Structures are given as structure tokens and as C-alpha cells.
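Quick sanity check, Motility protein B-like N-terminal domain-containing protein:
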Amino acid sequence: MRRKKGAGGPNNSYLISFGDTMTALLAFFIVLNSLASEQTGVNLYSGTGSFIRATDELGVPGIFEEKLSRSPMQLDHTPPVYIVPNTSDEQSGTGPDEESDSLYIRDREQQELERVLFELERFHEHSGVEETDLGVAFDRMTPLPSSESLIDGEMRKLLIEIAPFARRKDSILKIVAWTPSPGPSVWARSAERAALLAFQISDQLQLPQKKRREIQAVSQLWPYSDIKRPSMTIIATRRRQESSF
């Protein structure tokens, strides 16, 4: 009969058992730590991840066949209320605006300015500026000559300045002889001088017949009492362009 071998000497097999034990403990604590970090507050009540899988066989009976309920408490029990903060960094506004009012805003400052201007226009009545013709007026402050010819040296200097504009196709000349009083005789004499001025000015500027017919000669009463009255005024304006629409 074979003889049983005796026990051998000391060996390192205990190190293998110790290593396996430490590995198992490490895995256990890792799982325990992950469960502990998840099963707090609202996660504990609603169930997330491993907690849902872990409670398949835990709870109260009633709503699943052959298994226990996933609810860790009775269904008629009032659930706890947890206020979960919103950790989302995404803007909830529409467009580049940060305010979540469901309105598309290109630029909030621009929108506010337009709204203020609209309200001002709505509450305050305003009238538009009347359209004016582009032109220039030349006043002669000294009296006109009493002779037959009204074109003297001062008038020639004035006409030299007006000539480039007066010869334009779209220009219109208006000769105004200012009358000091509204009397009929004074007014009639002033109108005659205005007509004579228009005739002599057109000759001096050598205007064509079409431009001569367009010259306006009028006599008007000076409307200002606190401003010195000129003897005559030449108003040169541009003809208003007709719209093509």
C-alpha cells in the first residue's frame, strides 16, 4: 500500500487568496460607492440605473405577475416633492436673445428702440415738413434806378452770379418787386417795374425764347415790419422732377 505523502513546506499560496479577497472587496466598494452616489433625493424615489435593476425583486406586491412591484412604497402614499435645479446651460430663448419669451428677437435693444419710437408716434401728432424747391434768392437792397434802363453796375454783378444757374434747362427765374404799401397805384407801378426787369434781365442773360416765357414777374407786399425791405429779389429755383411711377 502506497504511503501518503506528508505535508509540504511553506509556500506562497496565501498571497493568491489575499489578492482575490482584496480584488473582490475593491469591486464591492466601487459598486457600493456608485449606488450611494445615485440613490439620494429624487433618484432614490424615481430609480435610475442600477437601482431600477436592483429593485426588480424588491418592493410591495401588486402590479407585476410573479414579481414584486418596482415601487418601494405603497401607491396611495404621497410621494415626496424634490425641487431639482436646472443645470442646463443652453439658452431657451428663440434666436440670439437670452430671454425665454418664445419671441424671435434679432436685437433686443433695436426692438426696444423701435417700440419706443412707435409709441411716441402714436401718442404725439406730428405734421410732415412741407416739400420745398431747391433754389436761391438774391436781394438788392439799394433802390432801383429811376431811368429807363434798370440794369446798372450792381445789377450786372448780380446777374453774373445768377447766369450759370439761369441757363440750366431745369431752372426757373422769378422776379419780385417789393411794394412798400398796398395802395393800387403803388402796386400797379411796382408790377410794371417787375415786368420791365424780367424783360431786361432776359436780354442781359441772352436767354432763349422758351426760357424767357418761363420767367415770372410779380409784385408783392413786403410782409416784415422789423426787417429792412429790399427793392427787388431774384429767386432762382429748379423745376421739380416728375415721378415716373
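Posting the structure with no commentary besides this: The helical segments are 13-38, 42-46, 50-54, 108-123, 153-166, 184-205, 209-214.
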